[in-house]
Amino acid sequence: MDKQSRTYQAYVQILKEELIPAMGCTEPIAIAYAAAKARDVLGGMPDKVEIGVSSNIIKNVKSVIVPNTDGMKGIEAAAAAGIVGGQADKALEVIAAVTTDQKAAMRTFLKQVPVTVKAIDNGFIFDIIVTLQQGSDSAVVRICQYHTNIVLIQRNSEVLLDHTAQETKQLCGDAAPAESGLTDRALLNIADIFAFADTCEINDIRPLLETQIRYNTRISEEGLRGDYGANIGSTMLKFYGEDVRNRAIAKAAAGSDARMSGCELPVVINSGSGNQGITVSVPVIEYARELGASDETLCRALALSNLIAIHEKAGIGRLSAYCGAVSAGCAAGCGIAYLQGADLKAVSHTLVNALAIVSGIICDGAKASCAAKIASSVEAGILGYHMYKNGQQFRSGDGIVTKGVENTIRNVGLLGREGMRETDKEIVRIMMQEP
Questions:
Q1: How far is 131 from 40, CA to CA, in rounded Å?
Q2: pLDDT the model gives residue 112
Q3: What range(s) does the Serine dehydratase-like alpha subunit domain occupy (predicted)?
Q4: Residue 180 in contact with residue 172, Cβ under 8 Å?
Q5: What is the pairing mode between strands 21-23 and 115-119?
Q6: Residue 259 and residue 135 share a domain
Q7: How far apart are the C-alpha atoms of 422 and 53, rounded to whole Å?
Q8: Claim to verify: residue 300 and residue 377 sit in the same structural domain
Q9: 104-124: per-residue pLDDT in tens?
Q10: Which of 155, 186, 231, 316 is least crowded, fewest Cβ atoms below 10 Å from its Cβ?
């Protein structure tokens, strides 16, 4: 691929936009980020906090432990962490440097300061509005569409930043809403992704991917060593053996085990999700080690898997009732196939086969069971490739599978974005009824 081409430059930029470090589940961290920014705008600690969040934020924050809070869960805990110990300039690592005293201060803050949480629906699946008050002074920060996209900053009656009108325009049309400030994901397609990964100047992407390898390997290993969540990773190794296939599945699951239980190690995310970042990378890394692949080959395989996952998610949206681990696990299967010499045809069939197997997995929020869904998705990705190697495939007309990998990806996008809207609402209603 021509390095000067629009597509090449876009793919490099997309990787830079998506493969960023984050500590903790990204939805509560986004709340902490908004809260820390609002505290800075206010210029002091608030005596009242109001938080408005869209239903998908409620879903993804309800059951996950916020790191660096000594085990606290929920929207209120995430906001308190940002207000008391957050460093807004660190974005998705906003609470990475919290001190022991600040952890204790968070609990005191929640006892002393009223925090009100309400559901909002402004047409955005991803929407967070944090309002802090200190006497007669107030500060408002709004994050919309994706985790670091601050669209409104206001202090008292003075509007310091307002991109809300621009964001509202993005809601028009039948496609997934465009994300302002980010490179156009419509340029992504499997053929060009394969060409880019296979021929790109490796130093253009190496720093991003080396950080992903280092961070995501470390948290997966911590997940296997410790006692986190439902311990899906260590259970996989205990009962299904330690061949490379099972190690790839188990280590990806273990990273999620740790992350969903408040592990304070950072990960490099994909499509706004740490779980997806782990899923799309750790299995590929494990296979590369088993196969003795060079560092360059591993980077190319990771570029392929990361971009395929981003391509899949672009049509679905950041949050949905469609489990994001599915997109990442199927993409990991493509990266594993590439490591074993797969060409474009093999990668395309791997992806279609895998999507046909696991596209029915729902997202019911961030929590311990995410690790098990990751295990199933990575297994499907690997099976998808082995099916192709065995001369087998799912064909057009088999359910949502249709002729051509791009058409099948488009069908999955419609399923996740449009078809599962009511499912998403019902999931949130069910979750809110729990004691």
A1: 12
A2: 97
A3: 90-428
A4: no
A5: unpaired
A6: no
A7: 18
A8: yes
A9: 999 999 999 999 999 999 989
A10: 186
